[in-house]
Design goal:
Layout (H helix, E strand, L loop, with lengths): L15 H8 L38 E6 L5 E6 L11 E2 L2 E6 L3 E6 L5 E6 L2 E7 L5 E7 L5 E5 L19 E6 L4 E6 L5 E5 L2 E3 L5 E3 L9
Antiparallel strand pairs: 1-2, 2-3, 4-5, 5-6, 7-8, 8-9, 10-11, 11-12, 13-14
Length: 217
Amino acid sequence: MNGQILASPRLIVPSSADNSSVSNIPSSLTLPSSAAPTPVPTPAPTPEPTTPEPEVPCNHEFDGRKQITGTTMHGPVCVLCGYINEEQAESCTADHYTADDSSHKEICGACGGVIKEESHLYTYTTETAEDGVRIHKGTCSVCGHTMDGACVFDPDGICEICGQPCTHEYTVGQSLDESYHQLVCKFCGHTEKEEHQIGESADSQKYCTACGYSLNE
């Protein structure tokens, strides 16, 4: 080009000096080898979706009645699966009562369900038991249930359970002074005072024939 001569490329071979410099690389220096490939975990097979078996409808066999929860109604009940046919529901009708000492339950005669529960309405009588304890007997005016128990008296001599007053039966207590001695109810502990009942002994000593108090000066 324009009279210029271009040099052609030539191969350059390293000299022996260059080879010796390569051989002088320390033997402790190792060239990194290519890293081993990390194995890729094989994904677990996805389970095939299962279709649930369809429920077989019950061929209902109705026998008897059962109370519908939360109501005072009952309906025919299937003896196989417990299904209650509410389309044929009827009102429960009281047939009898069950009871304990605090309440009674009104029970349906057809299904046995509880129609309602309420406290007894007792009327009471009181009497003295064979062991000398004052007791009350109650009869419920609604269901006829009966109960009995010992009276529990308050300071005024009124039973806290039946509300009946104590029919006091007194025993003579200690002497209070030269004129009176104490009377104590053996049922409720109520006290009264009573005048000494003066008597005279064979040796002409005066004393109270009830409490024994001596009236001699």
